[in-house]
Amino acid sequence: MNLDGQVPLTAREAASGLLGSVSMTCWIFLLVPQLIENYRNGNAEAISLLFVFVWFVGDVANLVGGLLAGLVPVIVAIAVYFCIADGVLITQCLYYKARNTRREALRRRRSSTETLDPTTPLLGRRFSDSIPAPASRRRSSGSLRGHQGAGRRESQIEDTLAKIVEENDYGHKAWIKNFLSVVGIFVVGMAGWTIAWQTGMWTPAPQENHKTEDMATGGLVLGYFSAVCYLGARLPQIYKNYCDKSCEGLSLLFFILSLLGNLTYGAGIMCHSNDKEYVLTNLPWLIGSLGTMVEDVIIFIQFRVYAVPQDLPPSAVS
Questions:
Q1: Which Gene Ontology BP annotations are present (predicted)?
Q2: 191 within 8 A of 41, measured Cβ to Cβ
Q3: Closest-CA residue to 100 (of 45, 175, 159, 172)
């Protein structure tokens, strides 16, 4: 420790700070790719709601455990952000499920009415059936004849917004885009830590405090509970991918950021200290982070096994 009371910045402390900042950046942008993918598809059928719900429960337990354990305000703030982001994803999934169910019911009702109407001439039926319905990239307009104008304007607005966030690249182009996104995450995370260190917002934590810090029992229990939730959350998604024999509709970048966030988080903790008391204190969060990496790798394998041929878009593959 320096004469002014500050802890010197060692290589391990710098590495811990950098990795922690990169991990935080991964978590901040984690759900954005999947939210965009759901919007682009016009549905969230690829996401297992049980996966998101169990993850949300784990984040809530993590937040409460962090409050009881007296973790630093930044960690608590990030935990609050996790819960809000989970809520946004769950809301989006439920919205698309309700909207598409309502549109499908309306389509079936309209189709049944047109089919069973005895006043419609047979020639008129065949002529109308031969006209192909306009495709809107897995989005159904769902508009009635009396609202065709409004439906057309709504479709144009949706198509315009979709072009802004469209990601129709496959194969090497998709991997290049994901690689550049990961590089951007590292750049932002490292820049954030550098600014925080230079301005004094981040300082190295003293090593001797780890042996004297006591964590509340409730916080420790909730920490382990959140770890169990994180470990179990991906299992429904893995099973769903296996049953569907497809990962279409899932964002690969979403799981890449999850893997990197968990990896850098665990590595940042281990770089800070290998002290037994310190490791035991952070063991629930280490289990929750490093343990889910195995499941992320399984999902990566599923992306590979169920991959769509590069020369065909997903919609062209039956």
A1: vacuolar transmembrane transport
A2: no
A3: 45
Q: Where do the structural domains in the chain lie, given as residue ranges?
A: 11-122+169-316
* Half-sphere CA count of 75, side-chain side, radius 13 A: 15
Interior CA angle at 120 toward 136 and 108, to 5°? 40
Closest CA to 65 of 292, 293, 283: 283
Rounded to 5 degrees, what angle do the CA atoms 221, 225, 231 make? 145
* Calpha distance 60→223 (Å, rounded): 10
pTM: 0.73
Tell me how far apart the alpha carbons of residues 185 and 253 are, in angstroms, rounded to a whole number: 11
Give the closest residue to 188 by CA, choosing from 34, 23, 72, 78: 23
Residue 56 near residue 33, CB atoms below 8 Å: no
Asked whether residue 167 carries a pLDDT value surpassing 50, the answer given is: no
User: What does the block give as tokens for 144?
Assistant: 């009635």
d(CA 314, CA 318): 8
Nearest Cα to 205, choosing from 288, 263, 269?
269
> Nearest to residue 14, comparing CAs of 210, 266, 193, 206?
193
> What are the pLDDT digits (tens) for 180-228?
999 999 999 899 888 988 887 777 666 554 444 455 677 778 888 988 9
| Helices then strands, each counted (H, E), the chain | 11, 0
Tokens matching residue 35 = 């939210």
Distance (Å, whole) CA 298 – CA 81? 27
